[in-house]
Specification:
With 98 residues, the chain is mostly helical. It contains four helices and no strands. The N and C termini lie far apart (89 Å).
Length: 98
């Protein structure tokens, strides 16, 4: 941890002295794959993480819906009541006309 603090301190001192505040990453290892492929791999990894997180949330919502069938039945009962009200009873005039 001390080495990292020292590196940032050296970078800060050099930044103030040279008036160029871009960090020197020359001491870090270069990517093995190559530049365009590294960026594509990073984008693919980000997309995969978003997809995996989304799938986990979907499974969680499905699991919570199946864990409470009583709540699902209450919703179905309400739906049936509303559908019954929408259908309504045919009027006697329509019954006679048929």
């Amino acid at each position: 941890m001390e080495a990292i603090r020292q590196w940032f301190q050296d970078w800060s001192d050099a930044c103030e002295y040279a008036k160029e505040c871009a960090p020197d990453f020359a001491s870090f290892p270069r990517p093995v794959i190559g530049e365009p492929y590294t960026a594509l791999l990073a984008i693919a990894a980000g997309c995969f993480l978003v997809w995996a997180w989304n799938e986990r949330r979907i499974r969680g919502s499905r699991a919570s819906a199946t864990q409470s069938p009583a709540a699902a039945n209450v919703g179905a009962d309400k739906l049936n009541v509303v559908l019954g009200q929408m259908k309504g009873e045919p009027s006697p005039a329509k019954k006679l006309a048929a």
